[in-house]
Design goal:
Immunoglobulin-like, zinc, 5 domains, globular, 17 helices, single chain, alpha+beta
């Protein structure tokens, strides 16, 4: 049984941050670390003490991670970035509430003595001889220590304490991966048993030594199970200090998902139930697993569930029937056409996630050219008189500052200059829209037309589609391009306002002009002629979009994380081959275009042709790759880890340095073939919309959600007193009118409950095996 662990992290916003720049403001960004490994970096929000990021990450983790940390820094063009503060959350604190953390948390001061990282390898023996009891502490090595010197390294030594005695190892200069291989012996003195404490320090010629971390073992551990292995370094224990009221706060959403995934055959009955349910008459189906899921899943969990369900049905080639099933239920229970798909129902969330999973390359192809223009040209645009800054428009004139009318006319020309290409790209994209999306929209079009055939609802079939495609896909991507991977950075305030105006215009077009002239934004009136002209083009575009024949859906239930022939990631990187005899210079790196698939990593000078990085004899080469920022680095690392997951020969350790001057620069070992001194973090990967399907993990989450509604399902369908009310509410008929429907719903509910009970027993059996195995294995600290 496989175990999985993931963190859903959303860095929402900050408030009351201190000013770090002479202008009285700051340029804040956040770094997210898991056990001292940087996994994500938000964009920089320029000139703001109350920044909004709204960035979300899914981090797949090893089961033994310890803490999650958020560092807020002020970006400086010259010199080092200033540290504003940090928030540290332990694994236990995150897991305490199944709903996770969703709150404002004060930033605390960054204490150098608490900023420890890395591990130490020890082997301890308790021995008795004629002179009494002796403790032998074999200090072998350490790895990934914090850099304390300006050179980016440290000069570490270890200090061992037992009772009132202490001994030190030698100092290893200029390394974060020291190898000591020294045995220190300490004699037991009269008195109560003492703990063993091992501290690591960075030796400094001038001033005091810098603390690198410590480990401590109580007397009972030394007696029963002496330490032997790698141990994580910890900071000095200290009283919890005030969380820095003067450093501001962050609003964070963090949820830990941990689960055990059974082998595939155990999920087959539940998968079959789910697949069968989408083929039934949705309007009369009250005991379906999907109905139960919709009733018991609320809030943020509904979006996560929608993503899992869409992936699960995509893998089975049934995403179309699944979306159609939810659409039929949503349309059937809608009485007011104006409220159709306006709520965050499972149908709405599933269609939204489906568009992201299937249509993200399409979105990039349509919007990226114009979005890039807006960022690069940085034109000032404003139609709202209350927000106009007349001094922002440069105009050479003897009459002085430009008038409000002039700013409005200039802004109107600029806005239509961007909106024109956007609409041209959208209405001309029918052939580029993924067939699965077009088919889903066609089914949606048909269901709405059947439910509301009246002439006064003629536009409803268009609004249902444009409400998803324009209001939940195109407009949000224009408003916040970074959240849709259209840009690496958030927009500055001026560009952000321009994007907001463009998004409002696209939203109005998607609403088919129904709310033009209403509400508080009458200053948008100069755009009305363009918007009204675009609406007829959108209707024609939607007619052509749904004019598609049914096609088979791609998908399958393959367990492999990355299909060998699929390109996982591609793009430009800087590369340099290993040159042992020389130092790397900035001219030694060459820009190349890389492709990563499940089988190969290849590159070329341009994207038009490829050269595989392996010679004819199959010999491996060491190649250094450089990314332009930490986010791109983590995305490539994550992709490489996913691609190499099935590889049984991947290394558990590596050398982060280079072999130069007859030794490794990281750990100073003289053997070129020496084992790596740093762990490879193969278990930490970033979730992405393009992640391959994992049907077992997806079905496991569905099973967990169904457990929340099991009691409700049993009371609703298997207790006779509730059946009449249930049937009346679901079908509008009583027991005498629908004896067959009553029997069908009771049978469906019974079958679903039996499937859940079978999965309960399977989980209990596997957990019992784990407990038995743990009881028969020697314990480790």
């Amino acid at each position: 049984m496989a175990k999985s662990s993931s963190l859903n992290v959303r860095v929402v916003e900050g408030r009351a941050l201190p000013a770090k720049d002479v202008s009285g403001s700051s340029d804040p960004y956040c770094i997210v670390k898991v056990d001292d490994e940087v996994v994500a970096r938000t964009a920089t929000i320029w000139r703001s003490l109350s920044p909004f990021w709204g960035e979300e990450y899914t981090v797949h983790l090893p089961l033994d991670f310890h803490h999650l940390a958020f560092y807020v820094l002020d970006e400086d063009t010259v010199g080092h970035d200033d540290i504003i503060g940090k928030i540290s959350l332990s694994r236990e604190a995150i897991a305490a509430d199944p709903r996770g953390i969703d709150s404002w948390i004060n930033l605390s001061r960054v204490d150098p003595d608490a900023e420890v990282q890395g591990e130490i390898r020890l082997s301890v023996q308790m021995m008795d001889d004629v002179r009494g009891r002796c403790l032998r502490c074999h200090v072998l090595q350490a790895r990934d220590l914090a850099p304390r010197d300006i050179s980016g390294t440290s000069d570490p030594f270890a200090r061992v304490f037992w009772g009132s005695q202490s001994l030190e190892t030698s100092t290893i200069k200029k390394t974060r991966f020291p190898h000591w291989d020294e045995v220190l012996e300490l004699r037991e003195l009269p008195g109560a048993p003492s703990p063993l404490r091992v501290e690591l320090w960075d030796w400094d010629m001038v001033g005091k030594n810098d603390f690198l971390g410590m480990v401590e073992f109580p007397p009972q551990v030394l007696q029963q199970n002496p330490p032997n292995g790698w141990f994580r370094l910890l900071p000095f224990p200290r009283a919890e200090e005030d969380a820095g009221r003067n450093l501001g706060a962050l609003r964070l959403k963090v949820r830990l998902n941990e689960d055990r995934v059974l082998p595939s055959p155990y999920y087959q009955p539940l998968t079959e139930l789910l697949m069968e349910s989408v083929l039934r008459p949705a309007e009369e189906d009250a005991a379906s697993p999907l109905v139960v899921l919709e009733e018991v899943t609320l809030g943020d969990c509904r979006q996560d569930l929608a993503t899992k369900l869409v992936k699960l049905f995509l893998g089975q080639g049934l995403a179309g029937p699944f979306l159609d099933y939810l659409t039929r239920r949503e349309v059937a229970r809608t009485t007011d056409p104006n409220t159709l798909f306006r709520s965050n129902s499972l149908a709405s969330k599933s269609m939204e996630q489906f568009m992201k999973l299937v249509g993200m390359p399409y979105l990039h192809e349509v919007l990226k050219p114009v979005v890039n223009r807006v960022f690069e040209e940085k034109k000032y645009m404003e139609l709202d008189p209350g927000k106009m800054e007349l001094g922002r428009t440069r105009r050479i004139s003897f009459k002085g500052m430009p008038s409000e009318e002039h700013v409005r006319e200039t802004s109107l020309g600029l806005l239509t200059g961007y909106l024109g290409p956007i609409m041209d790209a959208i209405v001309g994209s029918v052939g580029r829209c993924p067939p699965a999306m077009r088919l889903a929209f066609k089914q949606l079009h048909q269901r709405v037309e059947e439910r509301f055939p009246q002439a006064e609802h003629e536009d409803l079939k268009y609004l249902a589609i444009s409400g998803f495609l324009f209001l939940r896909f195109f407009a949000p991507a224009i408003l916040t391009p970074k959240l849709f991977d259209l840009r690496d950075q958030h927009a500055d305030p001026q560009t952000s306002r321009s994007l907001l105006l463009l998004a409002k215009a696209v939203q109005s077009i998607g609403n088919l002009g129904q709310q033009l002239g209403q509400g508080k934004e009458l200053w948008m009136a100069p755009l009305y002629p363009f918007l009204l002209q675009s609406i007829s083009r959108v209707r024609d575009f939607l007619d052509r979009l749904v004019n598609v024949e049914a096609v088979g859906e791609a998908g399958g239930s393959a367990r492999a994380l990355v299909p060998p022939s699929v390109t996982v990631r591609e793009g430009y990187l800087l590369k340099r081959k290993e040159e042992p005899a020389s130092l790397a210079t900035r001219f030694a790196f060459k820009k190349r275009y890389f492709w990563l698939s499940g089988e190969t990593l290849s590159y070329s000078k341009t994207p038009e042709w490829q050269v595989v990085t392996q010679d004819d004899a199959g010999a491996l080469h060491t190649t250094y790759l450089q990314c332009k920022n930490v986010n791109e680095l983590n995305q490539w690392l994550s992709a490489l880890r996913k691609a190499s997951a099935p590889n049984p020969d991947k290394l558990a350790a590596c050398h982060p340095g280079a072999f130069r001057g007859a030794r490794w620069t990281c750990c100073l070992q003289a053997e070129r073939s020496a084992a790596g001194c740093s762990r490879t973090h193969s278990a930490v990967t970033l979730g992405d919309w393009s992640d391959p399907l994992d049907p077992d993990a997806e079905t496991q989450m569905v099973y967990r959600q169904l457990l929340l509604g099991r009691d409700q399902l049993r009371m609703k369908f298997l207790e006779g007193s509730n059946m009449a009310t249930t049937l009346k509410a679901d079908t509008g008929k009583g027991l005498r009118d629908c004896p067959d429907a009553l029997a069908q719903q009771r049978t469906a509910a019974t079958r679903l409950l039996e499937v859940l009970e079978d999965l309960d027993r399977a989980h209990e059996e596997f957990q019992q095996r784990e407990r038995d195995h743990a009881a028969s294995s020697p314990l480790r600290p």
